Amino acid sequence: MSTEIKNYPDAQFVNPQITSDDEIDLRELFSVIWQGKWLIIAITAIFAIGSVVFAIMQPNTYKSEALLAPASEEQGGGLSALAGQFGGLASMAGINLGGGGGVDKTQMAIEVMKSRQFTSQFIQKHNILPDLMAAEKWNMSENRIIYDEELFDFSKNKWVREVKAPFKPEPSMQEAFKVFTKVISVSSAKDTGMVRVSVEHLSPAVAQQWVTWLVEDINKAMKDRDVAEAYRSSDFLNKQIAQTNVADIRSILYKLIEEQAKTIMFAEVRDEYVFKTIDPALVSEEKAGPKRALICVLGTMLGGMLAVMIVLIRYFVKKED
């Protein structure tokens, strides 16, 4: 017991000294920073000037946007009614009428628009690969895109970029898809269901044209899918009619064929099949980027923090020596 009481003060005496050695004196830090103020100012100034130069060298980009509304789906009503009326009888014959809760056509169209296959077909159909991958700046007075000569020779319409295998001078659709996803935006409002499609590009005319093409192409793509499916369904139903003699089943099949004919007719007479354009894309008069002021502020802040770190590291390295 006496030994424990004797050792306790010794431990109390040692611990505060160890703690005081491990503590960082803020006054010492401020003193070190003040002593290295000229180095901090110099490094910060270099970064500030560099960020200003970098921001000025960045070309302007322009955004074009279209507001779309999901088109109504009147053609699905008849098939749903048949499913509710004859679903049990049709299932006995091995026929699925599908009655309820399918995939939302609007959401499916959005996902198709974001897909690799649709993007590849869009780029190839409209021949926009040079505008997407090799555009360097936009000549406002001539409304003309200037291409990077190290990537694309516009006079010869030939790709001249130097790349290592497996890449080729002409960018692949995989490369183009990665770049395309950065310039396109497709979003849906949860409360209203409205869809916004936007494209950002060096040329405002190109951005507007791409948005218009995207809306037209997605409507056509979804229309072609449904029409092709309706034709396949009609062929299948006609085969089933030829194979059955049950009057009730044949009646159901004839009504199903009628619904498929309505689907085809509905698709053929309406161009805005999935999306109706509420506010079409316009050629923007104001730039969307770059945020030059933000680039300058962030560059200056980065330079200041880096300079302070350098001063502190130098001080503590000398202190250890």
Automatic annotation (TrEMBL):
Which terms in the Gene Ontology molecular function aspect does this entry carry?
protein tyrosine kinase activity
What does the UniProt keyword field contain? Cell membrane, Membrane, Transmembrane, Transmembrane helix
**Which part of the chain is the Polysaccharide chain length determinant N-terminal domain?**
22-125
Enumerate the subcellular locations listed in this protein's record, separating them with semicolons: Cell membrane
Membrane topology per the record? Multi-pass membrane protein
Q: Where do transmembrane segments lie in this chain?
A: 38-57, 293-317
The segment(s) forming the Tyrosine-protein kinase G-rich domain are 276-315
InterPro entries under this entry? Bact_polysacc_biosynth/exp, GNVR, LPS_length_determ_N
According to its record, what are the GO cellular component terms?
Answer: plasma membrane
Chief location category: membrane
The keyword Cell membrane is annotated on this UniProt entry: yes
Q: What is this protein called?
A: LPS O-antigen length regulator
